[in-house]
């Protein structure tokens, strides 16, 4: 935990994007009712793309940008990479360990433990991308990212799923699911497959690499307006390429397909470019405060939401949990079930905003 005097030296657009992404993550993770949600506030069951599907890859993109901005300076400050490696590894282990802690809530049943999840993937992507940034240039990173995406596409679409004798991309019957069934320890999220499994982690690293490239662009010696234009243009090209690739290798978050990486990284780049232009170039800062506040303690806010959820979802009050009480009150007042569920999710985000605001006001920034 660090006390800081301000964020004037930081890229406000990146902090804002990080904060609103975490707020969106909390909103979609904690609806008022799992059985009543607008379709776009749920993950796609398989192929396709919803608002919810965009959140995790945008955050991994932000991780990559943050690495480029932070470690470009740290690389100059440290004569040896050894100390940086130690800090990178230690931070990755901490994030992964917190993910394991959240997976054990509320029963701490080690026999039913899942070894994958959102924080686990963030930890792995951070570890790999930070080491890559210290040892490769932008061209090498782009080539490596392209090779991973192409290699993953070829593996998933040309290698028959063992036991089926043919290439399959169906839930639980594809190569990635087979690898997880053979080698992934512990519980899998969907019984016989996991959306954050072993093979799909490789293309998720490319989501982070795309952020590294965007970060290098922001560090480049070009005028600010051009940086914004390049981010949005590159994002548009990436999203378009992903769309057309998706015609033969569908956009699919569960498999984290190569087309999914290009579409979502493109969206993230366009979004960052637009925010960079408005906030950091034009100095238009209206309505960015919630994003800055959540962004200052992003992972801490995510963890706190999981802990607070125990109070709202696990413990009954008068025979009902708090989320059920609030949703039933809203539906009783005439709101539709889906809308009531969304209103509760927004309310839960606001509840989590309170401690985030108090930390920000006291200039306390919790760094995992």
TrEMBL record:
It comes from the Bacteria. It holds the Pfam family HGSNAT_cat. Coiled coil: none annotated. Residues 10-160 form the Heparan-alpha-glucosaminide N-acetyltransferase catalytic domain. The chain crosses the membrane at residues 12-30, 50-72, 88-106, 118-135, 142-159, 198-218, 230-249, 255-277, 289-315, 335-360. Keywords: Membrane, Transmembrane, Transmembrane helix. PANTHER family: LD22376P. This is Heparan-alpha-glucosaminide N-acetyltransferase catalytic domain-containing protein. It comes from Dyadobacter linearis. The lineage of its organism: Bacteria, Pseudomonadati, Bacteroidota, Cytophagia, Cytophagales.
């Amino acid at each position: 935990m660090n006390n800081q005097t301000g964020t004037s030296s930081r890229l406000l657009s990146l902090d804002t994007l990080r904060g609103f992404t975490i707020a969106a993550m909390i909103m979609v993770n904690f609806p008022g009712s799992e059985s009543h949600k607008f379709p776009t506030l749920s993950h796609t069951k398989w192929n396709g793309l919803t608002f919810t599907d965009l959140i995790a890859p945008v955050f991994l993109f932000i991780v990559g940008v943050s690495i480029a901005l932070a470690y470009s300076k740290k690389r100059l400050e440290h004569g040896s990479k050894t100390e940086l490696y130690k800090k990178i590894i230690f931070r990755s282990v901490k994030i992964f360990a917190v993910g394991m802690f959240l997976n054990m809530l509320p029963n701490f049943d080690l026999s039913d433990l899942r070894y994958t999840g959102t924080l686990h993937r963030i930890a792995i992507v951070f570890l790999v991308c930070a080491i890559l940034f210290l040892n490769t240039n932008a061209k090498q990173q782009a080539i490596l990212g392209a090779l991973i995406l192409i290699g993953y596409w070829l593996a998933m679409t040309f290698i028959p799923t063992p036991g089926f004798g043919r290439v399959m991309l169906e839930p639980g019957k594809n190569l990635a699911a087979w690898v997880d069934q053979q080698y992934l320890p512990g519980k899998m999220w969907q019984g016989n497959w996991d959306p954050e499994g072993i093979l799909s982690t490789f293309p998720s690293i490319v989501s982070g690499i795309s952020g590294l490239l965007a970060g290098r662009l922001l560090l480049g010696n070009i005028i600010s307006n051009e940086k914004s234009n390049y981010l949005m243009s590159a994002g548009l090209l990436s999203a378009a390429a992903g769309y057309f690739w998706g015609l033969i290798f569908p956009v699919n978050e569960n498999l984290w397909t190569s087309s999914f990486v290009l579409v979502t990284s493109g969206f993230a780049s366009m979004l960052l470019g637009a925010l960079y232009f408005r906030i950091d170039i034009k100095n238009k800062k209206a309505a960015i405060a919630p994003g800055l506040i959540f962004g200052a303690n992003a992972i801490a806010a995510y963890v706190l939401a999981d802990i607070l959820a125990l109070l709202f979802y696990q413990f009954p009050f008068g025979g009902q949990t708090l989320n059920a009480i609030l949703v039933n009150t809203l539906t009783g007042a005439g709101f539709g079930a889906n809308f009531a569920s969304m209103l509760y999710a927004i309310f839960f985000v606001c509840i989590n905003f309170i401690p985030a605001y108090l930390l920000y006001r006291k200039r306390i920034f919790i760094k995992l």
